[in-house]
Write a structure and sequence with these properties.
The chain is built from nine helices and no strands. The chain is mainly α. The relative contact order is 0.14.
Length: 236
């Protein structure tokens, strides 16, 4: 199977060097905002902080007979970008004395799903997370007057849109040489995973989502719009 990702590898390298240093030193956060966002930001920060060890191991197993390692290189750069998001959120949290979480059960479930999954299954889990993040960070940006947090959200939103495209291209390559019925089952499984995850995320992050203008049906609509965009890229 052809798995050439040189363009994505080069994109992540360019994006890595183009990121500006974050400065939250004089940032302000009202108590009202803090009550709305605190626990939610804590959970998303820990979700962004994965080292991706099992994902990288799955990619290495998949590519063991492939001479082109550009996908693995791109994947490592993608993980570093996610860790940068976690680091920037941590800078914001430190500025406003918001403690980091050591673990959260929702994040643990996502990590365990990836731990025992194939590369394609791991990418499917990641795609679900990226779709939800695209809606969440737009809401978070709308909630706050913090210049620092708005800047972080703005960059993450740019990155997440590209991350969706990156995961979609990988899933497209998996599906290219399979039977149509197998790909139809894969579409259904992605839909079920997203549909099952959306209410859980709403349960824990509804304060931010509602305050950011994403009432439940708006939240669902925007998430499914991202899902449809991803599926078009996967099945092009």
């Amino acid at each position: 199977m052809e798995f050439c990702f040189t363009e994505w590898r080069d994109y992540f390298r360019r994006n890595q060097s183009a990121v500006k240093e974050l400065n939250c030193k004089y940032d302000q956060l009202s108590e009202t905002e803090r009550r709305v966002i605190c626990s939610s930001v804590q959970q998303f920060q820990i979700g962004e902080s994965s080292e991706g060890l099992f994902l990288i191991a799955a990619a290495k197993r998949f590519l063991k007979d492939c001479a082109d390692k550009s996908y693995l290189e791109a994947l490592i750069l993608f993980i570093q970008e996610e860790q940068r998001h976690a680091g920037e959120l941590e800078i914001f949290m430190n500025r406003h004395n918001i403690p980091k979480l050591k673990k959260h059960w929702v994040d643990q479930i996502f990590r365990r799903l990836r731990r025992f999954a194939s590369l394609e299954q791991s990418i499917t889990v990641l795609l679900t997370a990226e779709i939800i993040a695209a809606v969440y960070y737009d809401a978070l940006k709308n909630v706050t007057g913090s210049v620092c947090l708005r800047s972080i959200c703005g960059q993450i939103l740019i990155d997440e849109e590209k991350h969706i495209e990156f995961q979609a291209e990988a899933l497209h390559k998996f599906g290219r040489r399979r039977l149509k019925i197998t790909n139809t089952c894969a579409v259904f499984s992605r839909f079920i995973l997203l549909t099952g995850t959306l209410p859980v995320v709403w349960l824990y992050h509804r304060k931010v989502l509602k305050a950011g203008g994403k009432h439940f049906f708006v939240y669902l609509k925007e998430a499914y719009q991202e899902y449809v965009r991803a599926e078009k890229l996967i099945n092009k």
